[in-house]
From TrEMBL:
<dbReference type="InterPro" id="IPR038516">
    <property type="entry name" value="AAR2_N_sf"/>
</dbReference>
<comment type="function">
    <text>Component of the U5 snRNP complex that is required for spliceosome assembly and for pre-mRNA splicing.</text>
</comment>
<dbReference type="InterPro" id="IPR033648">
    <property type="entry name" value="AAR2_C"/>
</dbReference>
<dbReference type="InterPro" id="IPR007946">
    <property type="entry name" value="AAR2"/>
</dbReference>
<feature type="region of interest" description="Disordered">
    <location>
        <begin position="171"/>
        <end position="191"/>
    </location>
</feature>
<keyword id="KW-0508">mRNA splicing</keyword>
<comment type="similarity">
    <text>Belongs to the AAR2 family.</text>
</comment>
<comment type="subunit">
    <text>Interacts with PRPF8 (via RNase H homology domain). Component of a U5 snRNP complex that contains PRPF8.</text>
</comment>
<dbReference type="Pfam" id="PF05282">
    <property type="entry name" value="AAR2"/>
</dbReference>
<keyword id="KW-0507">mRNA processing</keyword>
<dbReference type="InterPro" id="IPR038514">
    <property type="entry name" value="AAR2_C_sf"/>
</dbReference>
<dbReference type="GO" id="GO:0000244">
    <property type="term" value="P:spliceosomal tri-snRNP complex assembly"/>
</dbReference>
<feature type="domain" description="AAR2 C-terminal">
    <location>
        <begin position="215"/>
        <end position="369"/>
    </location>
</feature>
<keyword id="KW-0747">Spliceosome</keyword>
<dbReference type="GO" id="GO:0005681">
    <property type="term" value="C:spliceosomal complex"/>
</dbReference>
<dbReference type="InterPro" id="IPR033647">
    <property type="entry name" value="Aar2_N"/>
</dbReference>
<protein>
    <recommendedName>
        <fullName>Protein AAR2 homolog</fullName>
    </recommendedName>
</protein>
Amino acid sequence: MPRRAMASDTGFEMDQDLAKRLLVEGGTLVLLDVPRGTDFGIDLKSWNTGEDFKGVKMIPPGFHYVHYSAANEFGELAPRVGFIHNFKKSEFVVKRWDSQKEDISSEVVSEEVIERLKDNIKNLDRYLGPYPYDIWKQWKELINHIDDSVVQRCAPLCGFVRSALELENCDDASRPRGGESSQKRQRRSGLSIEEKEELLLPHLKPVPGTELRLTKLPEKHYPDGASPTEITQHSLDTSYTLETLLTQLKQPMELIAEMQLAFVCFLAGQSLDAFEHWKRLVSLICGADAAIPNRRSIYVEFLSTLEVQLRHVPEDVLCDIVASNNFVYHNLRKLFATIEMSSEVDGRLKSQAVRMRERLTSKFQWDFSDMQDEDDEDAPVVVTFE
């Protein structure tokens, strides 16, 4: 039976007063001509659309991630596409499906069409599914630091986040020049089979405007003029890299906002590029030992944000994380050990870390005992220079 309304699959029943308020203050997203069977969702929920589907109503004001996957005649889904929109009170958004591209059109719907739909809202209402309010509290926890400026800075210029990036050939002029290519040629005979095969693959890059514009982590992790000993120290403590990254942001807390944005682009948008960026940020923040006392507010929010995110990591992904030496566990183990033994970290942050440790141990059976005793294979390698 075609679904015209998207009632919660959990059986959640919305309070009548809340429902009346959202009918007035909630946003409306109208999607015209979406084919039946399209996988469509908003935030943490998704459904297969029916013939009568026209969009979503009663959307709480704030940031939301709208996502969808076109389906072919056999029910096979295309890679997920999505976009983030900050719905204002009573905002009325209209988009149209492009049957040729099998995608939502980037063309702006005319004001005439929008006004006609508004005037016909009573008839349109029955084809709009209510926002699944049972996930709203969880969603707010995931995006509480994201604001317009962060989305505008990081979102793709095309306006859509694609789980499968559009790629094009990287022409010769765009390829690295000089020493790097020469070094590769010089050591070609010593490459593994996998590395040799990689060299034979075509050079590809995302089509300009389609990629997420997340802040690039500094390639150089030590200051100019650093001695060999200092270079080794900066390899063990990522504080210099963290501080360098923060200089690229308007406000330090944008780091947490970008971490949240990357995570929801992975969680709701299935973007692996966003997932890799999220992992890099987690490793960077956890490894910045000297920065913890000076950037206390960042670490308070980081611990809260990461704990919320770990509740939503899909089970199969969590298994992959564990299989690949569980980078989250090892990074947190390092961070918790630093916080525990540092005399410069205040008691409230230490208590927060201890409580989080206990909850993670209970939920995932992660062992945070004997954190000061590193296994030989986990201990950092210190390079000695003559």
